[in-house]
Amino acid sequence: MQVPPIQASIPTKLQSLITNLEEVCQVVTEIAVRVLFVASAIWLASATLPLSFHAVFIPFAGVGATFLAAFFYIDASAPQRKPASPRLPLLRLIADDEEVLPLDAPRGISNLDALKNQAQNCAFNSLVQFVLGDPTLLQWLRNPITDMAIDEFMVLLNAYGVSADCVANFQARVEEIGKDAPATSWEIFNHLELVDENVKALFNKIVILQDAFTQFFDEYDREDGNLNSQALRVAMSQISEGISDSAHHQEDAEELLSHILDLLPISQKVHFSESYHFSQNDIIDNQVQQGNIQLAINDDKRIENMLRAYCNERAILERDGEKRETKIKREFLLAPSALRFQIKRFANVEVKKGWASWFYRGPAYRQEKIQDPVMVPEEIAITLIDGSQRQFRLSSFINHQGDTISSGHYVAGRVVNRNKYLVNDLNVTLAGQQEWDQQLQQAYLLCFVPAEEQPS
User: Fold this and answer.
1) Of the candidates 233, 209, 164, 231, which has an alpha carbon nearest to the alpha carbon of residue 201?
2) How far apart are CA 34 and CA 71, in angstroms?
3) pLDDT tens across 67-99, in order?
4) Cβ atoms 125, 229 nearer than 8 A
5) Does the residue 237 lie in any domain?
């Protein structure tokens, strides 16, 4: 089968120009609204009051309106993981390959993981490719807890660390109605009165997510399926208030993946032994489980050395009321089902504001993208705490093209039967080594699976 070449997305310089233009329009509009508000207040005071009162009330109206205007557009929401995107949708330029498509858009012209992009759903399209390259994650998404048998559901409760009282309550209810009752495990569990509300909320999120992905991949498996990732966006907006259900809002692929990994059972996460060495005689040991590993780009710019630096991190931490230089040693307790890396490509840089800061009360920080290329091997080895080694092979990655999280475009890479494909929405290309390396070196998210479990 011949696959069409990837069409060029918006060039980086043009993306930067668009982003800068949006920011300029944002500032100009916010200042203009403030000025208009102050002018309207002064005009209203002068038009409604007698001349004898102008000397007192017009300055008062101007000062009062100015102070009120200074608080326009303040973001009162909780602190975010990244700076807030512009709050006025003044410009929303869409690339040629990001045309708005109907929800029932037909499947792509290539049957290899091709997805049409509805406006700005490229992050979700790339996330699908990433999941397809992660067999363990894919199996979890396609095995809904609502379809589990009683015994499977019991194992699941233990995997999520549900309290013993809750498990005993569930088991007693099952025995009361009988294992052969028509009610499913989920229906029984969901109607228990003694289940903690936080546990119910967690499981409800899992049900929403799994149902959406199961239906999506069932449609995906059909040759005549109508594929569109908008349904995944809607489902994820229901499990997180920070995700918009609008196809015209760009999302962060790493944030999407994190929401999914947060719902994984503990057994499917990476298990680390952490030791905090505050001094030779002051050591705190801990065990943590996490869905992905965040790697900072260092001078060497090689994944192996970045992982080594993460496992031997130095940080300034507070201890006994004072800040100390601390060594954090991490070791793999178990062989993970997959190694998922996030390359820290975005840094928050403080915005230096001059006199205009009184008028413009935007975010105090702006994002700065780290464009440094990173050397990613096809295979990587990790050493477990017992000294044994495990080999992992690159399976998929996501590359962000652009200057900020709130703009740009996402492209995915997949390794299938040792062949390397670049997936840009509908366009799938069997990539040459040079083209593959160029995209891989700018990777934002990486997935390595056990070498013997390379997905086909």
Assistant:
1) 209
2) 9
3) 666 655 443 333 333 333 333 332 333 333 333
4) yes
5) no
Q: SS3 for 333?
A: coil
In terms of Cα–Cα distance, which of 402, 300, 381 is closest to 20?
402
Spatial distance between the Cα atoms of 93 and 95, rounded to a whole number of angstroms = 7
Give rounded-to-5 percent helix, strand, coil for the chain. 40, 25, 40
Query: How many alpha carbons fall within 13 Å on the CB side of residue 272?
Result: 21
State both tokens at 449. 């699976």
User: Closest by alpha carbon to 121, among 145, 137, 97, 144?
Assistant: 97
Give, in order, the Cα–Cα distances in Å from 444 to each of 98, 139, 297.
21, 23, 11
In a domain, 219, yes or no: no
246, 258 Cβ separation under 8 angstroms: no
Query: How far is 419 from 415, CA to CA, in rounded Å?
Result: 6
Phi/psi at 225 (5° precision): -70, 145
Structure tokens at 163: 């309290």
Instruction: Report residue 43's pLDDT band, with 50, 70 and 90 as the boundaries.
Output: confident
DSSP code for 7: P
| DSSP type of residue 368 | E
List the domain range (segments joined by +) for residue 336. 270-453
Q: How far apart are CA 221 and CA 223, in angstroms?
A: 6
What is the tens place of the pLDDT at every residue in 379-426?
999 999 999 999 999 999 999 998 888 788 999 999 988 899 999 888
Tell me how far CA of residue 354 lies from CA of 85, 361, 393, in angstroms: 21, 12, 50
Q: Which residue has the tokens 């002018």?
A: 39
The CATH number for 445's domain is: 3.90.70.10
Number of H helices, E strands in the chain: 12, 14
**CA torsion, ordered 155, 159, 165, 170, to nearest 10 deg:** -40
> Does 10 have pLDDT greater than 50?
no
Query: Does residue 392 belong to any structural domain of this protein?
Result: yes
Query: Is pLDDT of 137 > 50?
Result: yes
Q: What angle is formed at CA 69 by the lines to CA 63 and CA 71, rounded to 5 degrees?
A: 120
- The letter for the amino acid at 229 is S
Residue whose pair of structure tokens reads 């109508």 in the numeric block: 226
**Where are the extended beta strands (E) located within 225-311?**
270-279, 282-290, 293-295
Which residue has tokens 């003044």?
A: 90
**Domain total of the chain:** 1
Q: Does residue 412 form part of some domain? A: yes
Is it the case that residue 153 has pLDDT exceeding 60? yes
Q: Which two tokens stand for residue 36?
A: 């208009």
- Cα separation, 124 vs 231, whole angstroms: 10
